[in-house]
Specification:
- This protein is an alpha/beta fold.
- The protein folds into 2 domains: about 15-230 and about 345-445, 3-Layer(aba) Sandwich (Aminopeptidase); about 235-345, Alpha-Beta Plaits (2-Layer Sandwich).
- It is built from 14 helices and 16 strands.
- The longest helix has 22 residues, at about 310-335.
- It is elongated, with a radius of gyration of 24 Å.
Length: about 450
């Protein structure tokens, strides 16, 4: 999940990695210990009378161990080497061949069912962490200062791994499931990198599906909607170049600060006077920089911000009008204005047929009262959008609750995404894995034209 924010700096002494690093053999030891321990968890979900798969519930403790190991060892975009190694090793242990190197550190598990020549679908999870200092101090907190799984990608990987383990032991589906573990969602465009590396040409599939945990949605509930689910993400930088002078003699210069102020106000008229009122968009100026002292009119002023839209047409309009208004300001004031507009992620658009299918799967899993099939879209962004530009598919939110699940030692902040006090809810592991498995089962059970 992409939001803008400064890179965090460490304020605590580093914990020696050797003190809490879990290597391959130690991870296996922990998994063995987890299997011998009494089964825990699932009670919260069972209270909703969900159709969880019992084999997955039985190895929930294994998934919890894997998830917490990933949480303790976060890696930033395109640096997910340990994470990728861990996932690949687990898949191979379960008899699933792995293809590595897509989008750098990305990988694809090739899970063949009863008919390897049958249709195929893709299930995607993201792997990377955020450049954020973790405020939690519980046992599985990050061992890497300034790096944290604050968006739940550790949980996304664990849920997909849970589905992979179950499907590998129950290959009665007539086709192939591609398990897509993607790097660099947090601003790195890893989804596009995998597509550019031939994801859909090397692994032909009918559709692709993704899932993200969502704090604030109750545990046991899901949310999805057809059409726009998340916004495009775009950054801009505008530099106003005037002519510096003494502040007591402003008539001898061209004041970039006043021009920037007028420009900032004028840009908002794009949303109120150029865009249709029923179209949704955000244009936020988040930084303005100019000057060094009180008695000098500077040479330059800089503005930085973001634009979010649900359609490319509205995005095109906003970028065009930003450039036109800047050109008009140049003529009006005799300044030079440079506009750098960077399109990062496109809007995430769920395909209608696949969204209806997913909603039906969810209702059969948790009941209709726990499924919001017309949820309000969010202005956050997600690079799964690149995959949905290439293939039909759907992206769904799984509720992460209100933070009450967090263990002693959690930070004092809210359990929200991109927050140093966040932690993924391990109660979701069997639910998310069961959803993936049921999606696979129902997809291949659909009638197909000959």
């Amino acid at each position: 999940m992409v939001t803008a924010g400064p890179r965090a700096t460490d304020t605590r002494p580093a914990t020696p990695d050797t003190a809490r690093h879990i290597g391959p053999s130690r991870l296996r030891d922990r998994l063995d210990k987890a299997r011998r321990a009494p089964a825990r968890g699932g009670a919260t979900l069972r209270s909703f009378h969900m159709n969880l798969l019992e084999p997955i519930v039985a190895f929930q403790s294994d998934l919890k161990t894997i998830r917490r190991d990933l949480h303790a060892h976060p890696e930033l975009c395109y640096e997910e080497h340990r994470t990728s190694d861990t996932i690949a090793r687990l898949l191979e242990d379960w008899g699933i061949p792995v293809v590595r190197g897509l989008g750098g550190t990305g990988l694809v598990g090739v899970l063949e069912g009863a008919d390897r020549n049958g249709p195929a679908i893709g299930l995607r999870a993201d792997m990377d962490a955020l450049p954020l200092q973790e405020l939690n101090t519980f046992e599985h907190a990050s061992v890497h200062p300034g790096k944290m799984h604050a968006c739940g990608h550790d949980g996304h990987c664990a849920m997909l791994l849970g589905a992979a383990r179950h499907l590998a032991a129950h290959r009665d589906f007539p086709g192939t499931v591609y398990l897509i573990f993607q790097p660099a969602e947090e601003g790195g465009g890893g989804g596009k990198a995998m597509v550019d590396d031939g994801l859909f040409t090397r692994f032909p599939m009918e559709a692709v599906f993704g899932m993200h945990n969502w704090p604030g949605i109750p545990v046991g509930s899901f949310a999805v909607t057809p059409g726009p689910m998340m916004a495009s993400s775009n950054d801009f930088r505008i530099v106003v170049k005037g002519k510096g002078t003494h502040a007591a003699l402003p008539h001898l210069g061209i004041d970039p600060v006043m021009i920037a102020v007028q420009l900032a106000q004028s840009l908002q008229t794009i949303l109120t006077r150029n865009k249709k009122p029923i179209d949704t968009a955000v244009l936020s100026i988040t930084q303005i920089h100019a000057g060094t002292t009180t008695n000098i009119v500077p040479d330059e002023a800089e503005m930085v911000g973001t634009v979010r839209t649900f359609t490319i047409d509205v995005l095109d309009l906003i970028e065009q009008r930003m450039r036109e208004i800047a050109q008009g300001m140049e003529l009006a004031h005799g300044a030079r204005i440079e506009v750098d507009f960077q399109r990062k992620y496109p809007p995430l658009i769920n395909h209608p047929d696949e969204t209806r299918f997913v909603a039906d799967v969810l209702r059969s899993l948790v009941g209709p009262d726990q499924v919001d099939a017309a949820t309000e879209p969010t202005m956050g962004a997600e690079d799964f959008a690149f995959m949905l530009q290439e293939k039909p598919g759907c992206y769904v939110f799984i509720g992460n609750g209100d933070g009450a699940h967090r263990e002693s030692g959690h930070g004092l902040g809210p359990c929200t995404l991109h927050n140093g006090s966040y932690d993924f809810n391990d109660d979701l592991l069997p639910l998310g894995a069961s959803f993936w498995v049921k999606l696979v089962s129902d997809w291949f059970a659909r009638p197909r034209s000959v």
